[in-house]
Amino acid sequence: MDVQELIKEQVSSYPVVLYMKGTPESPQCGFSANVVQVLNACGVSGLFTVNVLADPEIRQGIKDFSNWPTVPQLYIHGEFIGGSDIVTELYKNGGLKRMLHS
Domain containing 15: what range? Predict the structure, then answer.
């Protein structure tokens, strides 16, 4: 399976997927830590995360997959939502909770 197929399978197999630097328990950048914090505040359980630092192919592959140049990247129900700034804005205006609990 190539990287694009793997990513497609991951985002379609889990309701909430976060490609991040590090892990939820030990984020390796502030932006990833922020998204994890926001998702925790929304009560997300069963979050599937992928540490892009552990696999250079995934790190580049996710950028190509979404046509988005940065990580973290959040997917909800297979749909690309965005990075830290977008997730934070959606959280503040209530949109993120609606997406997560729909």
Answer: 3-100
